C-alpha cells in the first residue's frame, strides 16, 4: 500500500493543520515550499490564524517581556566617563526610615530568590516569551497597548508613534498628528474596531485656551491612513489616571479621576461611568476580565475585583471576588492584567509604591507564583498573542524609518 505524504493531502486539510501551529512555526513553514508560502500569505489564512490564536490564548495565555536593547559602545563610554567624574562617596539614605525600607526590600527579594516552590511554574498555563525592543524605536518610548499581535508604542509626547508586530518583525511609523503649539499633557490609547476592521490610535491633547485647557481629540485610522480631529468638551475637568488602557468589546477604557472613561472605537464617542459608591481607592488599571471591563478597589480586608456589566440595558458594577490582605500590612499584590485560565499578572509591592517582584495570581486557587526574577532591564510586560497581522505600510523593523 502506497504511503501518503503530507504534501499529498488536500490544500484545505494542510491549511487546517498550519493554522493551528504556533506563529513561529508557521513562519518557518513559509520556507518549505511555494504552495505553503501561498497558503500562509493568503489574507483568509491570516484572519483564520488570528481567530485560532485568540481562542488558544484563553486557556494558554502568553506574557511577552519587552526588554530594553543593550547599550551601544558610545553609550557605555558616556556612562563610564560620567561615573569617572563622580567621586566614589558611600551612598547615604536621606532618613532612617528610607534605609529600613531598603533593607526590608532587599530581604524580601532575597527570600523570593530562595523560594524554589514559589518560582515553580511547571504547572502554570501561562507561556512566557521575550523580545528585545528594536533600537529604532528609541529614545523615550512607552508601550501604549497590544491588540491582535500588534503593539502600539509612542514617544516624545505622542509625536512619534509606531505600530509593531514583533512576530513578523515588521512595523509602521505613523504620520505625525496635527501639532498643537500651546498643548499640555497627552493621553493616548490603541485598539481595534471589529465593525470597520480598523486599528485606531486615540490621543487627547489639552490645548491652552484663555485661562484653562480644552481637550482636543485626535483619532488615527489605519484604514484611512490619516488623523481626524475634533473637540472633546465632555473630557473637560477629566484627568486620566495612568496611561494604561484596555479594549473590551470595541470600547477603549481609561481609568479617570472618580469615574471610568470609555471611547467607542466605532462610533468615536466618549462616555463615563462612576466607580462603585461603596469602594475605597483604586488599586489597578482597567483590565479585561472574561469580556468585561474590570478594576481592583481597596476594601476593608484587602481588595475586591469589580466588573462593569450590562444589566437589563444599564451599565452596573458587580463585585466578583475578594483577595485577602497580606499578613504583613506593608505588603500588597497590585494586579495589572487578567491573562485567562484563572491567571492574573501583577507586582508585589512594599508600602504601596516600592515594587519588589512580578507575580502570577491564580484567583481560583488563591495561589501566588513568582516569575521574572533577575531579568534585567525591562521596558514592559504585555499580554500578547502571536499573529501574522500585517498592516498597510508595514516595513521590516530593521529598516531605517524616518
TrEMBL record:
Instruction: Cite the F-box domain residue spans from the record.
Output: 3-49
- A family per Pfam: FBA_3
Q: Report which superkingdom the organism of origin falls in.
A: Eukaryota
- What InterPro entries does this protein map onto? F-box-assoc_dom_typ3, F-box-assoc_interact_dom, F-box-like_dom_sf, F-box_dom, SCF_F-box_component
Output this protein's name.
Answer: F-box domain-containing protein
Source organism per entry reads Heracleum sosnowskyi
Query: What does the organism's lineage look like at the top?
Result: Eukaryota, Viridiplantae, Streptophyta, Embryophyta, Tracheophyta
Amino acid at each position: 500500500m502506497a504511503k501518503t505524504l503530507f504534501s499529498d493531502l488536500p490544500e484545505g486539510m494542510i491549511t487546517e493543520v498550519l493554522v493551528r501551529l504556533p506563529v513561529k512555526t508557521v513562519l518557518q513553514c513559509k520556507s518549505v515550499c511555494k504552495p505553503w508560502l501561498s497558503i500562509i500569505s493568503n489574507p483568509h489564512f491570516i484572519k483564520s490564524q488570528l481567530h485560532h490564536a485568540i481562542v488558544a490564548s484563553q486557556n494558554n495565555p502568553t506574557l511577552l517581556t519587552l526588554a530594553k536593547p543593550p547599550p551601544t559602545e558610545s553609550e557605555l563610554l558616556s556612562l563610564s566617563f560620567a561615573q569617572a567624574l563622580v567621586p566614589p562617596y558611600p551612598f547615604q539614605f536621606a532618613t532612617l526610615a528610607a534605609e529600613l525600607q531598603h533593607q526590608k526590600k532587599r530581604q524580601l527579594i532575597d527570600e523570593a530568590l530562595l523560594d524554589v516552590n514559589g518560582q515553580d511554574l511547571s504547572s502554570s498555563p501561562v507561556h512566557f516569551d521575550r523580545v528585545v525592543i528594536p533600537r529604532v524605536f528609541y529614545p523615550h518610548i512607552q508601550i501604549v497597548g497590544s491588540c491582535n499581535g500588534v503593539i502600539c508604542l509612542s514617544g516624545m509626547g505622542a509625536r512619534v508613534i509606531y505600530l509593531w508586530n514583533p512576530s513578523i518583525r515588521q512595523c509602521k511609523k505613523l504620520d505625525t498628528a496635527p501639532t498643537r503649539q500651546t498643548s499640555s499633557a497627552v493621553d493616548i490609547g490603541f485598539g481595534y474596531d471589529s465593525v470597520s476592521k480598523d486599528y485606531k490610535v486615540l490621543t487627547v491633547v489639552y490645548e491652552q485656551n484663555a485661562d484653562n485647557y480644552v481637550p482636543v481629540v485626535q483619532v488615527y485610522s489605519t484604514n484611512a491612513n490619516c488623523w481626524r480631529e475634533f473637540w472633546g468638551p465632555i473630557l473637560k475637568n477629566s484627568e486620566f489616571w495612568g496611561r494604561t488602557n484596555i479594549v473590551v468589546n470595541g470600547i477603549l477604557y481609561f481609568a479617570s479621576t472618580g469615574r471610568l472613561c470609555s471611547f467607542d472605537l466605532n462610533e468615536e464617542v466618549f462616555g463615563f461611568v462612576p466607580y462603585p459608591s461603596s469602594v475605597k481607592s483604586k488599586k489597578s488599571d482597567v483590565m479585561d476580565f472574561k469580556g468585561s471591563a474590570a478594576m481592583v478597589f481597596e476594601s476593608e480586608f484587602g481588595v475586591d475585583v469589580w466588573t462593569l456589566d450590562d444589566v437589563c440595558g444599564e451599565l452596573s458594577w458587580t463585585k466578583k471576588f475578594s483577595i485577602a490582605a497580606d499578613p504583613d500590612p506593608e505588603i500588597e499584590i497590585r494586579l495589572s492584567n487578567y491573562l485567562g485560565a484563572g491567571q492574573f499578572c501583577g507586582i508585589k509591592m512594599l508600602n504601596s509604591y516600592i515594587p519588589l517582584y512580578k507575580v502570577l495570581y491564580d484567583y481560583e486557587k488563591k495561589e501566588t507564583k513568582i516569575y521574572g526574577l533577575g531579568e534585567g532591564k525591562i521596558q514592559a510586560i504585555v499580554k500578547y498573542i502571536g499573529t501574522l497581522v500585517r498592516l498597510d505600510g508595514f516595513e521590516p523593523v530593521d529598516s531605517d524609518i524616518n
